[in-house]
Amino acid sequence: MNMVLAKAEESFRFMTRLHLTELTGLKASTLKKMAAILKKVPGSCIYHHTHRFLQQHQHISPEPPNDFAYWVANILGEEELGERLASIDVVQFTTIRHLREKIIQTIENYLATHPLSSKRFAEAGDEFHFIKSVSFIIPTKYEVSDLVEFKDVLKKITADSIYFHIFESRLRLGKKENDFSNWFEHALRDKPLAGSIARLDPYTHTMEELREAIIRLIEKRIISNGKN
Predict the structure, then answer these.
(1) pTM tops 0.90, yes or no
(2) How far apart are CA 86 and CA 72, in angstroms?
(3) First-to-last CA distance in the chain?
(4) 178 and 198 in contact (C-beta within 8 Å)?
């Protein structure tokens, strides 16, 4: 059967998002206080401080700065810990809970071997202010049922829509894979394409680069299917 013309078992509705940030009123001046607050802030706060760059600068080539790492290294002067926090590979985590635990563990392990670091504090005005990310998910008018329709819509949807389906739906909603891969595998029964999309490292692409990379993979798959 020609998979290009085959219709999905369930159509794909493209969603988009409106994004707001809110102050939590919580702030830390020491590493110990930061770790304590990290244990109780909402997951949307962890998400904001690890994805802020991607959310606000979707068209710039990303090397996503971790807000925690930046503050620790540049305000407290704890460069070693800053490097440890910056080296946390966000793409490996499928839930905010596990990402939160990793950040807290990294700070607490460091404090256990560097007791003097617990005495360092930020000056007034330089404290770490915890901010949370609030998103409103909105359905778009685009609903597709096959690869060709998907490719055509992907060329014109907003970067916010791509961001939601690749980043936010997976990490904030606790999904094991991004929405695109999930649909390709389970609705179109195209596991090879789903795997190709899933293997892309979204944190090393801008939204536009990611859009083009996914389109190329789909076009390659369409050509391959057409030969079968």
Answers:
(1) no
(2) 10
(3) 8
(4) yes
DSSP category for residue 205: S
Q: Give the number of residues written for the chain.
A: 228
Residue 94, pLDDT score: 79
In the numeric block, which tokens belong to residue 44? Answer: 């949307």
The more confidently predicted of residues 20 and 219 is 219
3 state SS of 90 = helix
DSSP characters for the chain?
--TTTPPPSS-EEEEEEEEEEEEEEEEESSHHHHHHHHTTS-HHHHHHHHHHHHHH-TTSPP-PPPHHHHHHHHTS--HHHHHHHHT--GGG-SSHHHHHHHHHHHHHHHHHH-GGGGG--PPTT-SEEEEEEEEEEEEEEEEE-SHHHHHHHHTTS-HHHHHIIIIIHHHTTT-SS-HHHHHHHHTS--HHHHHHHHTS-GGGS-HHHHHHHHHHHHHHHHHHHHT-
Average pLDDT of the segment spanning 42-59: 77
- Which of the listed ranges 1-5, 39-43, 60-64, 171-175 does the model predict with the highest average pLDDT? 39-43
In the chain, where are the structural domains located?
Answer: 25-132, 142-226
What's the DSSP call for residue 66?
A: P
Assess whether pLDDT exceeds 90 at residue 80: yes
